[in-house]
Amino acid sequence: MRFHTLRQLAELCRSESTTVAHLMIEEQVKETGETREQVIRQMAEYYQTMKEAVRRGIEQPTASRSGLTGGDAGRVASFAASGDPSSGREACTAMAYALAVSEVNASMGRVVATPTAGSCGIIPGVFVSSQERFGWSDEKLVEGLFCAGAIGYVIANNSSISGAEGGCQAEVGSAIGMAAGALVEMRGGSPEQAMHAVGLALKNTLGLICDPVAGLVEIPCIVRNGLGAVNALAAADMALAGVRSVIPSDEVIGVMLSVGQAMPREHRETALGGLAQTPTGRKLTEQLRDRKRNGTSEQKEHV
């Protein structure tokens, strides 16, 4: 890749009079040796998988294998359609779609890790709801995924996208930044505005710990995806309105790395701290362990 920072990415786009998406497509062609058509076709398949996960999560609500979660996406979608959501119908719909994809993931369905399975709902939630709202073509959304991918590339190579390394800020935070920056570009914002959106988004999730109850990507992960989609919309709107990240976005990414490195082990996907170790969190964990032990005993008796 010819860029390693968001600043370099924006400068390349400006000097070549192109968008982040188009620049990333060309970089992918060079990196993979595939044709432009092949690269775009693969990304289009990813987007179809995202849309199918949204549809399945809304139309076929399924409980997770643990039984801890499921059905919230449908509840929020119904409220968005017939209620009077405080966040507005569009934001509430994005939240519902993000929940839907995360619930599909928890029920062992097919999703696209964007950038991880734990944060897989945010980009689809923002993209699919925006496509419906603005009447965009699939091709436009596919280009948006290339923009999001370029942002994710910078974050991954200068910080982390792993909850085990940097906490939930690295997973959900990164996804929010990727979605916000891509949405700015899809709505006609400049590369500079898109990069500011990334910084605005990431600053709002600095220090977010990874504390999955029972070590499962369910509680609080699914809800964080839903709220993350709304955060992405807000960051994009701020950037489009002209709000700038006073601390440059690349510096924010650097802070995310140092904050993640300073996090205790208990707050980095181990389920040894945070919500996982609340009285209710421990109780749910023990219930799942008992169920697993009983299931194993029943299988042995059957054999």
Would you kindly provide a brief summary of this structure?
The protein is mostly helical and about 300 residues long. It contains 13 helices and no strands. It has one domain.
Q: Can you describe what's shown?
A:
It is built from 13 helices and no strands. The chain has 303 residues and is mainly α. It starts with 5 loop residues before the first helix and ends with a helix. The model is unreliable at 297-303 (pLDDT under 50).
Key structural traits:
303 residues, mainly alpha, disordered C terminus
The count of helical stretches stands at 13
Q: In percent, how helical is the residue content?
A: 55-70%
Structural class: mainly alpha
The tally of strands reads 0
Uncertain stretches: 297-303
Can you write the helix and strand succession as a string? HHHHHHHHHHHHH
Shape: globular
Cα-based radius of gyration, to the nearest Å: 20 Å
Percent strand: under 5%
What is the arithmetic mean of pLDDT?
A: 96
Distance between the termini: 56 Å
Largest sheet: none
**Number of domains in the coordinates?**
1
Region (Disordered): 270-303
Protein name: L-serine dehydratase
Keywords: 4Fe-4S, Gluconeogenesis, Iron, Iron-sulfur, Lyase, Metal-binding
EC number: 4.3.1.17
